[in-house]
Every structure is written in structure tokens, then in C-alpha cells.
Amino acid sequence: MTFNSNLAWKEASAAIAANRDVLLALAGVFFLLPSLAFGLFFPQPEPAPGLSEQQIMALMGDYYASAMPIVVPMALVQAAGTLAMLTMLTDRSRPTVGQAIRQGFSGMVPYVLAQLLLGIALGLGGGLLLAVASLSGIGALIVVAVVAVLLAVAYAAIRTSLTGPIIAVERERNPVLALRRSWQLTSGNSARIGVFYLLVVVVFLVLMAVIMAVTGIVLALVSGGEAARIAAAVISASLGAGLALYFVAIIAAVHRQLAGPSPDMAAGLFD
């Protein structure tokens, strides 16, 4: 069927409105709190003036290496939270929050394995292409290879974006089959879905940038130092959790539209 982005947005917004309290609680636990903790305890370093590009890259490399012990658990928690919210949005049996969370953690391993398999495949293919282009020593060819890899990553992300709903809604626990199923569902609609995702992300990023800029000015005027940093981290984490919540609802709506209703899916999505 032809993907309808307007319908997907309306369904996602209606689903969030109908389950607002529960979804906000899940988004707060699985996205807001981990992001806030990361922002407070692992603040991103600000490069000193005069540093070269290589020094900045080395600084950021050291930063992410030191933050890795919290990045990995945070990614796992957010994966479980994504599946839990998908369960709340789509399971017609109306599970409790505890049941949705258990479903989220039960599907976390195949979900993460699916992402790892996709990442390894893209890394090997993209790395090989970039290596061949680099060996040629032709600048234009290297640029073309980089663009091709970025486009391939974006395309693969769109085609496999329904892996989460397939694991949470269809209860598919084989990561390879989940990826294949997502690829099949998005066939013929990848361009429409990609543009839809892009528009949503751009709108949210613009809103976040405006809100952070305005609040930054206000915080600088009414407070300073540590208080301003904490307030900014809270606002940033809250906005990020909101984006995550809407994107999960959008992915659920896209899956529902392309897969069609089934006994295991939410016939009463907005009850």
C-alpha cells in the first residue's frame, strides 16, 4: 500500500494523547532520567581556543571512551524503553506498565542484536568502499564514496526502522527475520517514509534549538554557574525524551499502516 504520512502523524498524535500519562512516565524513566544523568555527570568538554582539528578529534575521542561505561547501559535501557512504549501503544490486551516493561526487556536482546547486525554489515561494506576510494588517491572519488556511504546508511536505517515494532508488536525474536520483515514492509515506500522522518526530525530540532536558545538567555540572566548548567541539562533531557516519545509513536503508526491490523495488534489503538 502507499504510505500516508498525514495519517501516520494523526495516528501517532492521537495515540500519545490517549495514553499520555503512561507514556510520559515511561519516557521519563527510560529516556529523560538516563539522558539527564549523562548530561550532568559526563558533560561534553568545550575545546579550548586555538586547538587544531586533530587535537579536537582526540579530545572528543577521549571523552567518548571515558563515557563508554555509561553509554552502553544507557543504550540498552533506552532500547528496552522503546519496546515498552511500543507495547503500550499497540497491544490490544491493554497491558499494565509492569507488563509492558517486562515485554520491553524480553525483546531487548533481539532488538540490540538486529541493530548490531545492521551496523556490522554497513560498517564492513562502507569501510571497504572508503578504503578502495582512499587507495585511489583521487579526492573526488573519496568524496563520492563518503556521500555514497552516508546515503546507504540513511537508506538502510529507513528500510529497517520498523524492526522495533516487529519485535514488540509481532513478537518476532529472530533479529535477522525482524530486519527482513521491516525491509519487506517498507518496500516501495522508503522515499515517502524517509521524507516523513526527516521532516519530523528537522521540525523537532528547530524547536529544540529555539527553546534552548531562549531558555539559555533567561538562565544566564536569572542564574549562573552550576544552577544554569543543571537547568539547561534538565530542559535538554526533557526535550530529547519528548522527541523520543513522538518518534516511537510515529514508528508504531507507520508499522500499523503498512502491516495492517491483526489479532495481535491494537485494534483499539486510541481507546
Helical/strand content category: mainly alpha
Total number of beta strands: 0
Number of domains: 1
Q: Low-confidence parts, pLDDT < 50 over ≥5 residues?
A: 263-271
Mean pLDDT: 87
Distance between the termini: 25 Å
**Major sheet:** none
User: Please, how many helices?
Assistant: 10
- CA radius of gyration is 20 Å
Helix content: over 70%
* Outline: globular
Q: How much strand?
A: under 5%
SSE string, helices as H and strands as E: HHHHHHHHHH
Provide the fold topology.
Layout (H helix, E strand, L loop, with lengths): L4 H14 L1 H22 L11 H38 L6 H10 L1 H29 L2 H21 L3 H6 L6 H11 L4 H33 L3 H34 L12
Helix pairs in contact: 1-10, 2-3, 2-10, 3-4, 3-10, 5-6, 5-8, 6-9, 9-10
Question: What features would you describe in this structure?
Answer:
The chain has 271 residues and is an all-alpha fold. It has one domain. It is built from 10 helices and no strands. The protein has helices at 5-18, 20-41, 53-90, 97-106, 108-136, 139-159, 163-168, 175-185, 190-222, 226-259. Helix 1 (5-18) crosses helix 10, helix 3 packs across helix 4 and helix 9 packs antiparallel against helix 10 (226-259). It is globular. Residues 263-271 have low confidence and may be disordered.
